[in-house]
Design brief:
With 453 residues, the protein is of the alpha+beta class. The chain has helices spanning 3-7, 56-60, 110-115, 124-146, 200-210, 246-267, 269-278, 283-292, 300-308, 326-336, 387-396, 405-409, 425-433; strands at residues 13-27, 31-37, 45-50, 67-76, 84-95, 150-151, 157-158, 170-171, 193-195, 212-220, 233-242, 296-299, 341-347, 363-371, 375-382, 418-424. It has 13 helices and 16 strands. The radius of gyration is 26 Å and the shape is elongated. The structure holds 4-amino-1,4-dioxobutan-2-aminium adenosine-5'-monophosphate and magnesium ion.
């Protein structure tokens, strides 16, 4: 039985079997206390072992991290703090644990645990992070399933650079260290191929046939930015909706964030309580605020005015026509509005080719949703559905229309207004856990100079 189910029992059980790893073991001459954890929940199960079991002495020499199989009886606990405990009839030592086990009882720093990413899920903090991650993934699917979106799988190997930022990892079977020169025609796919930075272009294909779709998969970016919010490999959720404009897109994005935050509170109360205690004292209050208060929407030019007149000293100047920096985004959401903010209608020059040109000819129907503590958690837009405008956008971005023939075809054959966005899954996890470094919400993070494990 899993410890999670044992702790939820209503009645004593005369015979149970449980597996797990020792968190602590305290032995006396005649009996031992074991705190056992199996990762199914935050809490440990208390086991009482009498010296009458045959291998009692051997057990006494076991330390934290040892794996055990225990058979016994579930009885009301004599001690404080827990409802149940197990009186062991037999204890099998499944795997001994070396005395150099790095997770001893004292608290360890998050940075130290990052270096032992293969063992850190055994700690209360990281066990909680990865249970929340799993629950949130499930919540993502529920959100879209309940709204009649179809889940589609877009390719990981691709020939197109959706974001046009040139931050792609090359996929090749050619040996880059060989001296003879290579050409893409001799390569595996007979053309240059890369790991995808976004499934959006392919999602648009499906939105313009199935109406409402979403992707949820890994994406890869070779950005050389070593920040606490950027990973080279991360997961993104990308809904794409036909017959939908920017207003509808922003409304869905806001509803999505509110839904995920309320699901985190509903499904992971113990874990969030732990984060609130040990990671970020304002977490629960902030999350409740996100659910209860309305989000704010402002245009990019309003945001620039507001920031320029804020009197705040920023490291990077606020300049009309340039990207908002993370410090600007955080000022808007944390200090000024104190609620998530959607900024829309960005200058066309700083946004990708696929965004729909507004009537002013200067801005595009883009939106970024900013949240406290992180800044941008969602980026999206209405897509350019007019063939001639799209082709001219592509030219201005220096793209070869022949590479995107299938994408422009969608505008020839029954084109429709459509919109979508991308939510960075790890950034959402940072929001709901209060954890401030993206490396700590990914099992095995990939960042510049680091692909250990
Ligand atoms: O704003 P981005 O670049 O938008 C797109 O890729 C669009 N194609 C999405 C769409 O409209 N379908 O990325 C979307 C989100 C960001 O808001 C951010 O949360 C996350 O993906 N993101 C990253 N997360 C972690 N590490 C990185 N290097 C990230 N780059 C983007
Ligand atoms: Mg973006």
């Amino acid at each position: 039985m899993l410890i999670k189910d044992i702790l939820n029992q209503e009645q004593p059980l005369s015979s149970i079997e449980v597996n797990g790893w020792i968190r602590t073991l305290r032995s006396s001459k005649s009996f031992s206390f074991i705190e056992l954890n199996d990762g199914s929940c935050l809490k440990n199960l208390q086991i009482i072992v009498q010296d009458t079991i045959s291998n009692y002495e051997e057990l006494g020499s076991c330390g934290t991290g040892t794996s055990l199989n225990i058979k016994g009886e579930l009885v009301p606990s004599q001690g404080k703090g827990q409802k149940w405990e197990v009186q062991a009839m037999s204890v099998e030592i499944v795997g001994e644990c070396g005395s150099d086990y790095p997770l001893q009882k004292k608290g360890h720093s998050i940075e130290f645990l990052r270096e032992i990413a293969h063992l850190r899920p055994r700690t209360n903090l990281f066990g909680s992070v990865f249970r929340v991650r799993s629950k949130m993934a499930f919540a993502v699917h529920r959100f879209f399933h309940e709204r009649d979106f179809h889940y589609i799988h877009t390719p990981i190997i691709t020939g197109s650079d959706c974001e046009g930022a040139g931050e792609m990892f090359r996929v090749t079977t050619q040996d880059p260290f060989e001296t003879k020169s290579h050409s893409p025609e001799d390569d595996f796919f007979r053309k240059p191929t890369f790991l995808t930075v976004s499934g959006q272009l392919e999602a648009e294909v499906f939105a313009t046939s199935l109406s409402r779709v979403y992707t949820f998969g890994p994406t890869f970016r070779a950005e050389n930015s070593n920040t606490t919010r950027h990973a080279s490999e991360f997961w993104m959720i990308e809904p794409e909706i036909a017959f939908c404009d920017l207003q509808g897109d922003m409304a869905l994005a806001e509803e999505f964030v509110k839904f995920l935050v309320s699901e985190a509170l509903r499904l992971c109360p113990d874990e969030l309580e732990l984060f609130n205690r040990f990671v970020d004292k304002d977490l629960l209050e902030r999350l409740k605020g996100i659910i209860e208060r309305p989000f704010k929407r402002i245009s990019y030019s309003e945001a620039v005015n507001l920031l320029s007149n804020s009197g705040e000293k920023f490291e990077y100047p606020v300049e009309n026509g340039t990207n908002l920096q993370s410090e600007h985004e955080r000022y808007l959401t944390e200090k000024h509005f104190k609620t998530p903010v959607t900024v829309y209608n960005y200058p066309k020059a700083i946004k990708p080719f696929y965004m729909r040109l507004n009537d002013d000819n200067e801005t595009v129907a883009a939106m970024d949703l900013l949240v406290p503590g992180i800044g941008e958690v969602i980026g999206g837009s209405q897509r350019e559905e007019r063939l001639d405008v799209l082709e001219s956008n592509m030219k201005q971005h220096g793209l070869d229309g022949r590479d995107y023939w299938w994408y422009t075809d969608l505008r020839k054959y029954g084109t429709v207004p459509h919109s979508g966005f991308g939510l960075g899954f790890e950034r959402l996890l940072m929001l709901v856990t209060g954890i401030s470094n993206i490396r700590d919400v990914i099992a095995f993070s990939r960042t510049p100079g680091n692909a250990e494990f």
